[in-house]
Amino acid sequence: MIAKPTPPRRPRWRSLALLALCLAPLLWPLHHLAERYYQEELASQNRQTLDLYVANLLGTLHRYETLPQILGDLPALRGVLADPLRLEAVTNANRLLKDIVQKTGAEVMYLMDVSGNTLAASNWDKRDSFVGRNFAFRPYFNEAMAGRLGRFFGQGTTSAKRGYFFAAAVRDRERIVGVLVVKVDLDHTETLWGRTPEQLLLTDHNGVVILTSRPDWRFRATRALTEAERQAIIAIQPYPTQAPQPLVLNQDAWISQTRDIKETGWQVSILAPRMLVDRSVQTVMAIGAGTLLVLMLLAGLVMQRRRHYIDRIDFEARGRQELENRVAERTADLEGLNTRLKSAVLERENAQQEAVRAQDELVQAGKLSVLGTMSASISHELNQPLAAIRSYAENAEILLDHQRTEDARGNLKLIGELTGRMASIIAHLRAFARRDRHAPESVALQPALDDALALLAKRRRAMAVELIRDLPEATLWVQAGETRLRQVLGNLLANALDALTEKANPRRLWLSAEQRDGCVYLYIRDNGPGFSRQALEHAKEPFFTTKTRTQGLGLGLAICESLMRALGGELLLANHPEGGALLTLQLRVAAPGATLPNSEDPSA
Ligand code: ADP
Prior knowledge:
604 residues, alpha+beta, Beta-Lactamase, Heat Shock Protein 90, five-stranded mixed beta sheet, 14 helices, disordered N terminus, binds adenosine-5'-diphosphate
């Protein structure tokens, strides 16, 4: 029996998981690389933004940097410083400043005397006019009075607008007579910042946020302030508050990039949410993990395929082995059977040879037995006529001595008859012993029957046997030999006449025939005594006779039987229900043929 296929094993998910665990560390470098890449990307982007912003800011400031010095040379302004109480001069100065402000885009310009009092201002006609106000507490005033360019950031105490102040001294020859201040609006530089996730942070020299895209970070200190700084803040009031609150930023949440602006002592920073990088890295990691998963699945699939393939090859190999075993077993069985058959055949052949030998011996014994019986009969049959012939011959001699030639002739005639009888006995014996080798031919039945009847006609008439013929008009053609058929018919008719001799008149002989099933049946019936039971059983055996030795040899029916078999026909013996014998001759139907001259040797 072929071994059952083992069910295909499931892929080893556990080993796959193990593989995944081993491969997972590969994701760390990927994470690191992705993080670095995106951080650098972001940094380069932010650097550009920062450069742009700084350039913009510095550009704005530079535009106004030299303005106070230039304006300080204007005669209209100097006139005010020379005579502050002259209303016309003040009005002219105010108008001039306002005009310049409108043309340059500065927020405000004003002129102070050496005490810090504002004499003229571009916003002279506004509600929050600087005219009459004193800004001596601002550092830019002191700077300018010291002959340097005053720079200062601060929220306007009046306007509450953040601005950058440039201040320069106005000189009359070498003497400082006043200070001209230009305030640049910085609020708008903050609004330039779009609504991006990145945040802007601009801190001054105190580390306090002065410009930012996040209003809640404004004016908060990014580092701890020193006592001196705190005092200075209170003194010069650059911020709306006198004690800036600390700005606490979660360093992990932001990626910052900072640039110093030397001219102003500020620092500009861009704070990008770390989330931006994290999100991209997460995407990369997801793709990486997905790829890894797909690779693992593919590996699993390949492993499964490979295992299936190995299993199948294994199964086929086992099947083949099984088949080979079976074939070998079968071959061994067959060889055993063959040997047994050979020995059986040998035994059978030996037995057959034994049987043939035994049969030969039997036949030989039978032949000897028949020969014995036959030789007894023959010698008996032939001795009688021989004795008669001798006595007739001796008698004839005596008769001839006495000149009784007529009587002697009679004796000679009797001798002739006796020799005829002896010849007949010998002829019968030859017929019995002969093996007919002639092929059957087409023979017409009725003419053969007529011939046989003609030979017995004299005897029949003498016995007054009535012949009742019931034969078809059409010729019945049978497979036979002309002479052999006549011999058979003659024998049977002679037997019928023999039987009828034992009966008183009326003696009858019926002849009828029919053709059916490819055979011709000839019925010969007499109303004699019929067959005795013993005769029915043994009549066909050679030398069986119920007649006296002179009448019968017991060879007639035996010869008829043998001839009929040779012709492929049959002889059946029976008694008619109404008494008498009924003999049936069964012969094969033959194709109609010409009634040829007898081809068989009549002497045979
Ligand atoms: P035989 O005629 O020399 O006796 P057969 O072989 O011809 O030898 O016949 C054998 C026996 O069959 C006969 O002795 C006879 O008893 C029986 N027999 C044959 N024909 C008839 C017949 N028509 N009626 C009765 N008995 C017959």
